[in-house]
Amino acid sequence: MRGEVQVRNELRSLTSARGIAAWYVVLYHIRESAAGAIPPAGMAFLAKGYLAVDFFFILSGFVIWLNYRELIEDQRWRAVPHFLWRRLARIYPLHLLMLGLAIGFALVCAVTGRPLSADYSWATLPYHLLLMQNWGLLDRLGWNVPAWSISCEFAAYLLFPLLALACDWRRLSSLSLAALLALLPLALFGLFTLAGKDLLGNDIPHLGLPRCLLEFAMGTILAALWLRWREAPGGTAMVAAASGLAALLAYLAGAPEVLSVPVLFAALVMLLALRADGTGFLAARTIHWMGEISYAVYLSHALLFMIFKIAFVRDPANVPLPLLGAFLLLVLLVSSLLYHGFELPAQRWLNRRGPVRPAGRASIGD
Hints:
By secondary structure, the chain is an all-alpha fold. The protein is built from 13 helices and no strands.
């Protein structure tokens, strides 16, 4: 076995954290419907829920590197069909289902005379079917809006084999990796500055893809560092905690979000991975289950909220908190049904019919 130690167990704390981040996005999207009932400080916090997507991007790079880097190094291009099939089996069935439901929603609105926004453009539908809708080719998110990040993730998956074959992070010293890890947020900041944008949520149709790719790359470097340092987590945890705290304090003091937030989330991912020992709050069974259904939560909530408001809400700008609570329970129920009844069975069905994994090291599971 080579320098990287084989990892066989799921990092449960990372799965649980993904669930919490997904619900942060949900609260972000529904916050304005209860603006009159939520204190200003709460609204300010919820208004930053879009940043959870940046956590997703870094976490994705981390997990994908752990799962597939050595397999692709060992088997090279023979491993790529298996890798891409596995990733498509993970993301595409539920994306296709939700897109189909959004199409059904648009057709019902058209038949009943209900006006639709420009988000439901039939001309853009092929891009959404191909998961290319957020590759800088369109000017609007459209259809099932949260799927923009899945489009960017798909691009990262397509590029990952090239990254894995071209970049052997083990050849670099830890100091060099840390320097490279720091340069990527600087590159992101430079890109947004050139575009005249100062928030990570700005101009998603054109900046969402580089935002994803750079943060995904950060996740791969974090994974390489974690594989080196996880056997002696004490010092690493102190460095990660100090880095995260410095980034948080800088952000609160007015440092650019584009620069400070990726650093904060990188530190958080490292800390969570170092504590992924099966104990603590994030290892609890219920919290972990929330992480398992998080993809369904993320992809389903926006369409569900539109339908919910049509069916139950008189004033979309002033929804009573108990009614919003009922909506959150609905999202939980529907997401559970989607995960157990469709997403997981479809993923397993496709994986059984895809390219066989070439002989190589076992993965954490994805």
